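Suppose you are handed a protein chain with no further information: no name, no annotation, nothing but its sequence. What can you learn? This example shows the usual starting point.
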Amino acid sequence: MRVEPAGTPPRPTRMRGPLLPLLLLLLVAVTACGSEAGDPPAPAPATNPRTLVLRVQELHSSPRPWERGDLPRFSLYGGGHVIAPARTSGALRTAVKYRLSPARYRELTDAAHAAGLAHARRHEDTTSTDASLLTVTHRTPDGLRSTRVTAPEAGGDGDRGRVLDFVRTRVPPAPSDTPPPGATAYRPAALAILATGGVGADDSTARPWPLRPIAGRCEVVTGEDLVRARQLALGARQNTRWSSGGMLYAVAFRPLLPDEHTCRDLDRP
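A reasonable first move is to predict its three-dimensional structure. Written in C-alpha cells, the prediction is:
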C-alpha cells in the first residue's frame, strides 16, 4: 500500500471499463434529439445565394388553371436569402425577396434538421379523398430531400407531427400584402408561360394570343420575350381566355426562381 505525504491533493479518478463509451453515446443522443438515431449534427448551411436550402410548397388537389402559376410559399437560399410570393398583378405572379439574419438562418436550418427533414418521407392520409399536399424540400450534404404530407390540415403526431409543427412554428407565412421590413421586388431572369387548353369560354370574350403560338403546356421566355410576356400579363386577368391556333387557353404567368431554369424544374417535388 502506497502512503501519500500529508497535504497531497487527491489523484483524479480514471474512468474504467465501458463507462466512457456510454457517456459519449448519451452525449450524441442528446445532441441529435429530434433527428434519427445516428444522424450527424446539422451541417453548416450553404452560402451561395443561388443554392436552394429549404422550400415549402402547398398544392391543391384540383387546381384551377391559373393556380398552376402559384409560387412556393417559402424558398430559402444560401446565405439566408428568401423569395416568397406577393400579390398577383393582373395575371402575373409576383414575389418579394429579403434576407434572414445569420443567427435566424442557422436557427431555421437546424430546426429543419431536428424535424427529420434530412430524410425523404411520405406521410399519407387515407381518410381524405380530396386532399391538398404539403411538400417540404431540404438540402442535405447528399443533396435535396423532399418530405410529402397529404392532407396537412388533418394534423398528426410522430414524424408527421414534427414536420407540420416545423412549418407552423418556424416557417414565416407568405408576405401577401404585407412584405417584411427590407423586402424588395423579385426580378426574375425568366418567366414560365403555363397554358391549359380546352377551357370553357365564350369565343367572343377571348383575346387573341399576340406572342408565339402556344405549342404546349409550358414555355420559358427570357430577354425581350420576357418583357413582352410581362406586359401582356399585367394587362390581363387571371381568368382571361386566350385564342391561339383555333383553341382557347387559360394562361398563368409564373416567374422562375434562381434554382429553376426549364419547365421540367417546375414539376420537381
